[in-house]
Amino acid sequence: MPIGDWEIPVLGKNATIAVLVQTHILIATFILGAIIIAPAAEYLGLITKQPRYERFARSLARFVVLLFASGSALAITFVLALITLFPIFFSYLQNIFFWVFLVEAFMFLAVIIILYAWYNVWDKLAYRKSLHVVFGFVAGAIGLLQMTMINAIASYMLTPAEAPATEVGQTFLNPTFIPLNMHRFVGNLSYAGFLIAGWAAWRYLRSVREDDREYYDWMGHWGMIWGFGFLILQPVIGYGYLKAIRESSPEAFNVIMLGDKSWLFNLLMLELAVMGIASVAYFVHRLRFAVRPMPAFRNMAVGALGFTALFSALNLIPSNASLVPQLGLVFADGEDTLIPLGAMYPWKYIGLIGMMLVGFFIIALYLKATAEGFHWGRSSRWSQWALMVSAVTVVLTMMTMGYTRETARRLDNDPGYLIYNCITLEQEIVQEGCPGATDR
């Protein structure tokens, strides 16, 4: 049997890798966001003396410690599957990123040690709280360094540097390395925040004790600040990331923005619209329960909700009548039937920038009200459903974005690449200048 010529029943080896990677990313992304949010909450509890922050931080730390084992097992399984199913590709990848893999291994060990130590000495350092908070932030910093190592590989696969593998600096700092790191750092915090808010909403609806209802109502608010607060940064960061892809891997950019997979952008805009509208509607509702009545703020928030819906609708208009050709959703003359309001310039730019500016406005209003305080435990059921819908939608958004980035290299299988313009899905070197090619 040729090396790596294995076929997985039903799924196939490509889908097997995709399932393992996507599941691992959904878990790992939450962990990376949570080990920043939890120490931040512990620090706020230290300076404000509000016990709910301490309760939240400790509960989240306990959950992260339990979840870390599952994420690690999936990561190891993925690496073993990659070595088994794509051994030639993995050997070239290892030759190019030997130092990255080595640092990643030590970072993995370091984050385990610090994370578990942070949780296990919680009570022992109760009277040295500042030191304990530092432990938490160190765990978060190591997690970010670990993510940086992985992003070097992921970004290189889509936009490889035009330099030999021996040029470690250029290989590491490939064209999309920095935009991808910014995108994922902000995304980690937003993703974790929305999931925390969704879980809090679920517990709020099931709670019968007044103190629990107050705590979970506050927890939903806390998660939403992180979720929506970092979501509104994504349009400008995402634009920078797409611009870097267009300049470095134009064929891949055309696949996801102009080709048969361009419907993925509209799907992302739909998911962004759901999260944006649900979040702003939640903020409007919460302003009713401010300790100091703020009718002017609430009226402005209602206006912001209307503008959010308007800009979201602008983003959802397709550029032509070929909506999802793979499913037969093609109307009129398909790609030849252009929709003026669906053009990227200027309408999509207006929609994205508008959503971001309105988002900054509403979060500023809400944080101002937060400084005055809220009455907790009085939220309506529909507001909690808005949090849960946002949590489900952010998971779907993560899956959509992951599929979009990875499918870009496939170029509709004409040919498909594991490393763009370098190694095909069949693990063949197709370009003489491909890093590692001269090592054969």
TrEMBL record:
InterPro entries membership: Cyt-d_ubiquinol_oxidase_su_1
Presence of keyword Magnesium: no
UniProt entry keywords in alphabetical sequence: Cell membrane, Electron transport, Heme, Iron, Membrane, Metal-binding, Transmembrane, Transmembrane helix, Transport
GO biological process, one term: aerobic electron transport chain
Bilayer topology annotation: Multi-pass membrane protein
GO CC entries: cytochrome complex; plasma membrane
Transmembrane segments: 25-48, 60-90, 96-119, 131-154, 185-202, 223-242, 262-284, 349-370, 382-403
Pfam families noted in UniProt: Cyt_bd_oxida_I
Cellular localization per UniProt: Cell membrane
Claim: Metal-binding is one of the keywords in the record: yes
GO terms for MF: electron transfer activity; metal ion binding
Family statement drawn from the similarity comment of this UniProt entry: Belongs to the cytochrome ubiquinol oxidase subunit 1 family.
Protein name as it appears in the record: Cytochrome BD quinol oxidase subunit I
Source species: Rubrobacter taiwanensis
